[in-house]
């Protein structure tokens, strides 16, 4: 099986590493002159985590081929994962090119963080094979992929994409409608906007915001998500008591849903704050630290779930 990775930055590189670990051939194309070296570094950095989680038969970094043209990458690919920059005009042109360059049974999935396929497919002659396959960083470690077609997508293609991702070990949410930002980024952005507001207003530092999540609610989310978490917050009365009790505070003006203006001062505060938090840890140190921790968390949650009496 041959998979084409179009665009090989943070996400395309992460996808390439994941596909290689599943024992398939990966052909990558990216127009940047340094893309091949960057891609190999990304794959090398991901390999210890992938090895720790278990490589499939045939998994081999040597099965990665970086080619010089989009056409060469697409020839004979049965699945294309597009991970080019989040720019609507670029995506429109690129997806149209991919439709023209691929065989007519190939599925073309876009990693877009939030553009609905209906908006990205406008230049494609035949949009039926175009679908969103939205991963989370790093795609080699975070299981979730959100799959959503546009109005012109053949529903069977969306189903094939979802089945394919599941067959290689991903957790898939299939959306039956176009929703800007899909599910997870809508939730994530609400939190992120409020974090930026708090920094812009001097209400909390970058470090305090990160600690508020990693030392607080962030520890519960990998286990139960925000809804089941609040079900437990209602005590034995569960979600019903929780809503009756805390419902009125939903109207309290705690959060601002409009995005703040991204001023130079706010940008600098975020950049300096995160650099301060990272301290002496390099980018590679932080990636390795995150990967070790995510593996441990995934294992711990799986073990805890498996030993619950009602385990499914
Ligand atoms: N970074 C994240 O956390 C994240 C998470 C999920 C989804 N995404 C989505 O993944 C996609 C890629 O994001 P990224 O973070 O990897 O960006 P990135 O900047 O790291 O990588 C983009 C790559 O695309 C290449 N590129 C430029 N023009 C191209 C073209 N015309 N055709 C093909 N490749 C081209 C660039 O050289 C670069 O290597 C975006 O759609 C983004 O929204 C990002």
UniProtKB/TrEMBL annotation:
InterPro entries: 3-OHacyl-CoA_DH_NAD-bd, 3HC_DH_C, 6-PGluconate_DH-like_C_sf, 6PGD_dom2, NAD(P)-bd_dom_sf. The keyword Oxidoreductase applies. Pfam families: 3HCDH, 3HCDH_N. Residues 181-252 form the 3-hydroxyacyl-CoA dehydrogenase C-terminal domain. Keywords: Oxidoreductase. Transmembrane segments: none annotated. Residues 3-175 form the 3-hydroxyacyl-CoA dehydrogenase NAD binding domain. The keyword Oxidoreductase applies. SUPFAM superfamilies: 6-phosphogluconate dehydrogenase C-terminal domain-like (SSF48179), NAD(P)-binding Rossmann-fold domains (SSF51735). Pathway: Lipid metabolism; butanoate metabolism. Belongs to the 3-hydroxyacyl-CoA dehydrogenase family. This is 3-hydroxyacyl-CoA dehydrogenase NAD-binding domain-containing protein. It comes from Actinomycetospora rhizophila.
């Amino acid at each position: 099986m041959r998979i084409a990775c179009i665009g090989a930055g943070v996400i395309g590189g992460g996808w390439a590493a994941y596909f290689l670990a599943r024992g398939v051939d990966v052909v990558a194309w990216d127009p940047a002159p340094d893309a091949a070296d960057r891609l190999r570094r990304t794959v090398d950095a991901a390999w210890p985590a992938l090895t720790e989680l278990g490589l499939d038969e045939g998994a081999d970094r040597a099965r990665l081929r970086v080619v010089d043209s989009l056409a060469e990458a697409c020839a004979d690919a049965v699945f294309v994962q597009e991970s080019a920059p989040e720019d609507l005009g670029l995506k429109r042109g690129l997806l149209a090119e991919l439709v023209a360059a691929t065989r007519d049974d190939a599925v073309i999935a876009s990693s877009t963080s939030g553009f609905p396929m209906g908006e990205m497919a406008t230049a494609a002659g035949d949009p039926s094979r175009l679908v969103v396959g939205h991963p989370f960083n790093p795609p080699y470690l975070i299981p979730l992929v959100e799959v959503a077609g546009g109005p012109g997508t053949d529903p069977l293609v969306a189903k094939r994409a979802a089945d394919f991702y599941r067959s290689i070990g991903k957790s898939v949410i299939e959306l039956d409608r176009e929703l800007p930002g899909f599910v997870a980024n809508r939730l994530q952005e609400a939190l992120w906007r409020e974090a930026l507001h708090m920094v812009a207003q001097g209400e909390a530092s970058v470090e305090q915001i990160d600690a508020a999540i990693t030392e607080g609610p962030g520890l519960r989310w990998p286990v139960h998500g925000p809804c089941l978490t609040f079900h437990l917050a209602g005590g034995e009365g569960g979600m019903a008591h929780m809503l009756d009790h805390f419902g009125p505070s939903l109207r309290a003006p705690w959060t601002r849903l409009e995005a703040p203006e991204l001023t130079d001062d706010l940008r600098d505060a975020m950049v300096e704050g995160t650099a301060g938090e990272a301290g002496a840890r390099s980018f590679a140190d932080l990636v390795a630290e995150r990967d070790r921790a995510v593996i441990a968390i995934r294992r711990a949650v799986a073990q805890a779930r498996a030993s619950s009496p009602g385990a499914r």
